[in-house]
Amino acid sequence: MTSNDPSLPTNFIQSIINEDKANNKNEGRVHTRFPPEPNGYLHIGHAKAICLNFGLAAANQGLCNLRFDDTNPSKEDQEYVDSIQNDVKWLGFDWDDRLFYASDYFAQLYEYTLGLIESGAAYVCDLSAQEIREYRGTLTEPGKNSPYRNRSVEENLDLFKRMKAGEYPDGTRVLRAKIDMASPNLNMRDPVLYRILRATHHRTGDQWCIYPMYDYAHPVSDALERITHSICTLEFADHRPLYDWALDKVDYAVDAMGRPQQIEFARLNLTYTVMSKRKLRELVMQGYVNGWDDPRMPTISGLRRRGYTPESIRDFCDRIGVAKRDSMVDIALLEHCIREDLNRNAPRAMAVLRPLRVIIDNFPEGQVEWLEAENNPENPDMGTRLVPFAREIFIEQEDFMENPPKKYFRLSPGVEIRLKSAYIIKCEQVVKDGNGSIVEVHCSYDPESRSGGATSGRKIKGTSHWVAADHSAPAKVRIYEHLFTTENPDGYDGEADYKTQLNPHSEQVLQECRIEPSLAAALPGSRFQFLRQGYFFLDPEESKPGQPVFNRIVSLRDTWAKILKGS
Ligand code: ATP
Ligand code: MG
C-alpha cells in the first residue's frame, strides 16, 4: 500500500492512516466512528463528518460505528436518535450491526471510575459550579487547588458511591480528575468527570442520577469499541490531552491491538446559513421555520425535503475536502453539485408558474395536437414524451410585455417567439379588463414552423415554455431563497444576532401554477427540470392526489460555475 494509491482519498487523515498501516499500528486495522449527540437533527456539517468517517473506513477496508454520545439526558430524545439513523442511511452509509450508545457503557464506566479513584487520579469536590469556575484561573493566571483535592481515597470512594446512590441533590458535588491546576491548558485543570443530574434518560430511564461528562465518556467509549482513528472537529484539539489522560489512567481492558488516536479536522461552515444545533433548534422551536425538515434548513432532513439527492451531498463533501484550518464554504458549491446531478438525471418538463392566457386564433377550436418533446438533451437515453398543444395555452406573465424595452426578446405586440418543442407564434392583440390589466393575449401561429417543417429554420430570438390551458393541471410551487440575507449571519466574531438577519422572502408560495400532463402524473419524490425555471422536487409529504406541491431545489443560474470561470 502506497500513499499514491489512486483509490484512496487524498487528505491528511488518509496520510496518517497510510503511515499507521506502514508501521503496522493497530495491526493495520482502520476503525472509525460517527458520534452524534442525539440532541437535534443532523446538518450538512455532520454530513461532512459522516462521509469522512464512513468513507475512510470503506477506502481502507475498515469499519465505522454509529455511536450516540448520549451523556446529557436533559437535552436528548428518542426522536433525535431515530432521525439521525434515518439520515445516515439516507446518505448511503451503513453501520451494519455496529450501533452503539455511550449509555451502554455507563455501568462499565462506573466500575472503571472506582478504579480511577482508587489509583488517586480523581476526587469528589464540593465546590459549587460558580466556585469551580473561580478556582479555575484564566489563560494568564494559574488556577487554585480545590480545598477538597486531598481527600483520602476511602472518603472519595464513599462519597462517589453515595453520589450514585442518590444521597445528594443535583449540583452539590462532582467527581473531578486530579491533574494540574496550573496547567497552561484549562481543560487539564482538574476537569469534572461526573455530575449529579436527575433527568430521565431516553434509554436508561431513572436508573442513573450521575452522568459522565463527554470528555471522559468519549475516549473510554472509543477504547471499548477498539476505535483506531477518533476523528473530530478542531475545537477538540485542546481537549486531546484530556482524551489521552483518560486512556492512560482508566483501566479499560487494554488491548494489544492498540489504542485510539484523536485527530482533528476543520468543521464545515457554509455561507448564508447557521450551523450549530443550538441555533437550528431555536429556529425550529421559536417558529422561524416549519420544523427541522423545512426545505430552507441546512439539516439533512431539510435538504432531503428540498429535493437534494444523497449523491449530490456526498459529491459536495468530496469536493470541499478535509483541512486543518477553519474556513467558510460558498453555498453556491452545494447548489452546483445538485445542478450537476440533476442536469444529467432529471427529466425536463414544462410548468408555467405565473400563467398568462394566450389564444391562438388560427388554430382550430377543439383540436389537440400531441407534440414530441425531448426528455433530456444531455441524456438521449431518457427518450421523448408527448406534450399536448391546443388553441388556448399559458405562457409566463413575464414572457409578455405590451411596451417592451429594447432587447426584450420575448412576446410583445407584432413580435414572434418560438414555443419550445412547438410552433412560432406572433402577438396580434392584447385584451384588457376595466382596470387596464391584461386578461389574455391573442396570437397567430405558423403551422410550418415546427421542427422538420418548411419554416422551422426561421431565426427567432426568444423561446418560451408553455402548457396547453385545458390539458394542463394545477400545482402549487414553492420558491426558496437563502434563509439569511447575509453571508455570515453569526458575524465573524460569532457574536451577531443571527435572527435579525433572517430573509423575509426565503419562501414564496405560488398557488396558481399550471403543469404539463407528464408532471401531473409524476410520482411523489421525483425531480424535474422545469424549463427555464430550475430544478424542482415533487414534495412527497405535502402533495395530495390532484394537488401536487413542487419545491424549487435551485434555479438554473449556476453562480459557482461563474466563479470557476472567472478565476
Ligand atoms: P453543533 O456544534 O452543530 O451543535 P456538535 O458538534 O455539537 O454540533 P455532535 O452531535 O457532537 O454535534 O457532532 C457529531 C460529530 O459531527 C462530531 O464528531 C462533530 O465533530 C461533527 N460535526 C459537527 N458539526 C460539524 C461541522 N460543521 N462540520 C464537520 N463536522 C461536524
Ligand atoms: Mg458536540
Q: What would you note in describing this structure?
A:
By secondary structure, the chain is of the alpha/beta class. Helix 2 (44-59) crosses helix 11 (310-320) and helix 7 packs across helix 8 (240-249). The two termini are 36 Å apart. The strands form seven sheets. It has a seven-stranded mixed sheet. A seven-stranded mixed sheet has the order 21-18-19-20-14-17-22, with no helix packed on it. The radius of gyration is 31 Å and the shape is elongated. It folds into three domains: 12-265, 3-Layer(aba) Sandwich (Rossmann fold), CATH 3.40.50.620; 277-347 and 475-566, Ribosomal Protein L25, Chain P (Beta Barrel), CATH 2.40.240.10; 354-465, Ribosomal Protein L25, Chain P (Beta Barrel), CATH 2.40.240.10. The protein contains 14 helices and 27 strands. Strand 8 (229-233), helix 8 (240-249) and strand 9 form a beta-alpha-beta unit. Bound molecules: adenosine-5'-triphosphate and magnesium ion. Adenosine-5'-triphosphate binds at residues 35-37, 45-46, 48-49, 232-233, 267-268, 275-278.
Highlighted features:
Ribosomal Protein L25, Chain P; single chain; 3 domains; binds adenosine-5'-triphosphate; 26% helix; binds magnesium ion; seven-stranded mixed sheet; alpha/beta
In short:
This protein is an alpha/beta fold. Strands 12-25-26-27-23-24-13 form a 7-stranded mixed sheet. A 7-stranded mixed sheet has the order 21-18-19-20-14-17-22, with no helix packed on it.
Shape: elongated
Arithmetic mean pLDDT: 95
The CATH superfamily title of the largest domain: HUPs
Q: What is the highest CATH level, the class of the largest domain?
A: Alpha Beta
Q: Indicate the structural class.
A: alpha/beta
Distance between the amino and carboxyl termini: 36 Å
**Largest sheet composition:** 7 strands, mixed
Counted up, domains total 3
Overall CATH architecture of the largest domain: 3-Layer(aba) Sandwich
Q: Could you tell me the strand content as a percent range?
A: 15-25%
Strands, total number: 27
What are the distinct ligands in this entry? Answer: adenosine-5'-triphosphate, magnesium ion
Helical percentage: 25-40%
Radius of gyration: 31 Å
Treating each run of at least 4 consecutive H or I residues as one helix, how many helices? Answer: 14
Spans of at least 5 consecutive residues with low confidence: none
Q: Provide the CATH topology of the largest domain.
A: Rossmann fold
For the biggest β-sheet, the strand order reads 12-25-26-27-23-24-13
